Amino acid sequence: MDVTPLTGQVFRPGQDGYDDEVAGFQLAVATAPAVVVGAETADDVVTAVRFAAAHGLRVSVQATGHGLTAGTEGLLISTRRLAGVEIDAEAGTARVEAGVRWGAVLEAAAKHGLAPLSGSSPDVGVVGYTLSGGFGLMARKYGRAADHVSAIDVVTADGSLRHVEAGSDLFWALRGGRADFGIVTALEVDLVPVTELYGGGLYFDTADIPAVLRAWRTWASSAPDTLTTSLAMIPYPDLPMVPEPLRGKHIAHVRVAYLGDGGDDLVAPLRAAAPALMDTLKRMPFSESGSIAAEPPHPHGYHGTNTTVTQLNDAMLDAIVEHAGPGAEVGTVLIVDRLGGALTRPPEVPGVGWDRQAEFVVRALSVVEAGIEPVRKAHAKLFDALTPWSSGRLLPFVYGEHDPAEVAESVYPADDLRRLRELKREYDPKATFGS
Ligand SMILES: Cc1cc2nc3c(=O)[nH]c(=O)nc-3n(C[C@H](O)[C@H](O)[C@H](O)COP(=O)(O)OP(=O)(O)OC[C@H]3O[C@@H](n4cnc5c(N)ncnc54)[C@H](O)[C@@H]3O)c2cc1C
């Protein structure tokens, strides 16, 4: 195999470095690529894609492995060394290379009094998140991250590196179509003038879950656009790494990210709903916003999916507790996010569909211990019960191995899906990319 023009390294099974390069955050999807290219430049990505085309290999890409949905046996492009972040403070934008995680952008942007449209975890990759749509901590005020991309550098299946902007079909398809159309080497994204927020969480005990769910639903339903909030039900293990008040308990965790003043007044109805086991709400620099959800930083195996819904009535809340609460047959982290606000408004430059009518998204995620089947079955009971009110699905919260056609049909509106399929035939006729 002649891959000499590469600046980066090539790893084959059995060689030093191969396992580290393939390892990602998601451990429930087995990947065994025939060759891994550790890209150091955009030209390395071009070389890798051309090499794969010449040898009939399918191409996949990984920055962090947080969003791995299918194993790969062909050529894997590892982007972790593409680590450049450039802030243009005057324009309020960042140019971010493909291997960058949100934490690096949060830090770089904060130095200029700016913030990115990042999500709950600073460890997630900017490109995978944004191409999935990107539901962030300020989503109800600013909309999804994919709608705040101004330019994309992408290597397409013909091995050419293209710079695409508004007006191009590829620009539309990539913002929500994820890796189906090429390997992105860099994105230019908008930043917003935010330095601080009122955020954190309220944690409630098992017995209070039904009352807290109802109080949060009512409170979140009339939330201003400056508030983005979710409620999680989490079965915490009895381990020293878990804060003592939560250890070994199945709790409700209300998460708050609020950009206005008077945060304590705003959350008063929640604090009154039940006594909190822990209350971490406070003003904080936006660069510390990863502490709001405080997600576990350790790689593990997980499987999950979601449904968007047009309302959250009492029957739905009962179904959520029954199928994904403390008594559920498979331990499940259940998260309900309030959508609405700017997420309902069409963006200036359209991108691939997102369920703009939905009011909430209900997501379920379970650690894979005894295989995926018991998890699938347990989640199916929950989502079957919610079917009468389901309106779609959000791509970023589909975790682990799923049928790609079924995911596409639930994630994209029919017109978008038709156009995506036409563009796929045009830009990637041999299906080099995608799952
Ligand atoms: C702990 C955790 C918290 C999360 N929080 C949020 C959240 O708040 N909001 C939200 O919207 N999502 C969230 N997600 C979902 C996350 O956005 C998706 O899983 C996303 O795909 C992860 O991207 P990644 O680059 O980190 O992962 P990777 O596994 O490296 O990539 C995931 C996929 O993204 C695509 N991709 C990655 N790099 C490229 C590239 N250079 N070119 C083309 N395609 C590429 C590929 O399809 C790849 O398989 C979270 C996930 C986890 C595990």
Describe this structure in words.
The chain has 3 domains: 9-78, Uridine Diphospho-n-acetylenolpyruvylglucosamine Reductase, domain 2, CATH 3.30.43.10; 85-193, Uridine Diphospho-n-acetylenolpyruvylglucosamine Reductase, domain 3, CATH 3.30.465.10; 196-403, Vanillyl-alcohol Oxidase, Chain A, domain 3. 26% of the residues lie in helices and 24% in strands. The protein has 12 helices and 18 strands. It has helices spanning 18-22, 42-54, 102-110, 126-131, 139-142, 169-177, 209-221, 263-271, 314-324, 373-386, 404-411, 414-427; strands at residues 9-11, 35-38, 59-62, 75-78, 85-88, 93-97, 149-155, 161-164, 183-190, 196-204, 227-235, 250-258, 276-279, 282-285, 302-309, 333-338, 360-367, 390-392. The strands form 3 sheets. Strands 10, 11, 12, 13, 14, 15, 16, 17 and 18 form a 9-stranded antiparallel beta sheet that branches. A hairpin with a 5-residue loop joins strand 7 (149-155) and strand 8 (161-164). The model has no long low-confidence stretch (mean pLDDT 95). Bound molecules: flavin-adenine dinucleotide (FAD). The site of flavin-adenine dinucleotide has 30 residues, from strand 3, helix 4 and strand 9.
